[in-house]
Amino acid sequence: MTQQWLVFAAVAAIVLVLGALVSAGTAASMVTFVFGDSLAEVGNNNHLQYSLARSDYPWYGIDFTGKKATGRFTNGRTIGDILSEKLGISSPPPYLSLSQNDDAVLQGVNYASGGAGILNETGQYFIQRLTFDDQINYFKKTKERIRAKIGEAAANKLCNEATYFVGIGSNDYVNNFLQPFLADGQQYTHDEFVELLVSTLEQQFSRLYQLGARKILYHGLGPLGCIPSQRVKSKTGQCLKRVNGWVMEFNSKVQKLIITLNKRLPNAHMMFADTYPAVLDLIDNPKAYGFKVGNTSCCNVDTSIGGLCLPNSKLCKERKDYVFWDAFHPSDAANEVLAQKLFDSLSSSVSAPPSLPPKPL
Ligand SMILES: *[C@@H]1O[C@H](CO)[C@@H](O)[C@H](O)[C@H]1NC(C)=O
Ligand SMILES: *[C@@H]1O[C@H](CO)[C@@H](O)[C@H](O)[C@H]1NC(C)=O
């Protein structure tokens, strides 16, 4: 397999996924299933009685409709909410908020859960969260409910034609490998750990495929070494280069995995959305995007006890000036910039189909 063919395959996969994603005609009926962590959560953990990974209290949601703390880990909307707006669909509801017989499942579901990772042991100290495996199990249940409503053939068609957004893996670093008191960081070298993550992800993607998923968009990890909760570990407040290096290695291995799966699984159109450069640019050059601060959060969090925004925390004056809302999560304003970039890259890859020889990605 030549390098050029691989690049072509990757570009073709992007065009196939995003052709379906942004073509205006199909947008209104587009069904999306969302899997992930706190960057994509819209309120599943509110329904987990003992979960410590929650954000259903002030100041979360202060810039959301009705100033409501919905369980989103930001002051306003997630990137997924904003992408949904741009696609003209409503952001799918949290799985755990649905009743057994809810017709909403026919429009899509959000399974994302704060604290969740690829691995089961990730985020264990939050007591409860939906791991990626849990989320896939719930998708299987969802498919059974859809089948009961519209029959087997129509359910298969719906699941084949839906778009699957997956954003998971940050917690496998932040709330696992990078925590010196947890076993994984002691037990594995990074080379071993990244192999474990990628081989687990391979099984999880394959399982989603067996359940009918064809168009899967995986949201690559951002520069985790630059989030406020990591920067405080450097004496000078700099980004942790070693952590960013690990994340880039993870991203590039997942990118290769996706190319391999697209070849191996008939009609699979999986895509890797590389958000790392866009997030890093926003953090490094906040002023170029109309922000003032990229290295610390609007909510004055105590990173020694976590890094979430607590009701007794002080907020900054202008929330729009900050890239970060708390020590982990971007602000609504930053999510707007990132969602727009993602949307533009999706649209341009559709309107300009690849011609050979392809440009390098
Ligand atoms: C998580 O635990 C379940 C149940 O024990 C197991 O079936 C699954 O393979 C585990 N997944 C991972 C990623 O370790
Ligand atoms: C953030 O950057 C500003 C300006 O470059 C600097 O003055 C400030 O000390 C930095 N804050 C932290 C927490 O590193």
Automatic annotation (TrEMBL):
Entry keyword Aminoacyl-tRNA synthetase: no
GO biological process: lipid catabolic process
GO CC terms of this entry: extracellular region
Keyword Hydrolase tagged: yes
Pfam families the record matches: Lipase_GDSL (PF00657)
Compartments in which it is found: Secreted
Alphabetical UniProt keywords: Hydrolase, Lipid degradation, Lipid metabolism, Secreted, Signal
MF term (GO), any: hydrolase activity, acting on ester bonds
Signal peptide: 1-27
Family label: Belongs to the 'GDSL' lipolytic enzyme family.
Protein name: GDSL esterase/lipase
Species, as recorded: Hibiscus trionum (Flower of an hour)
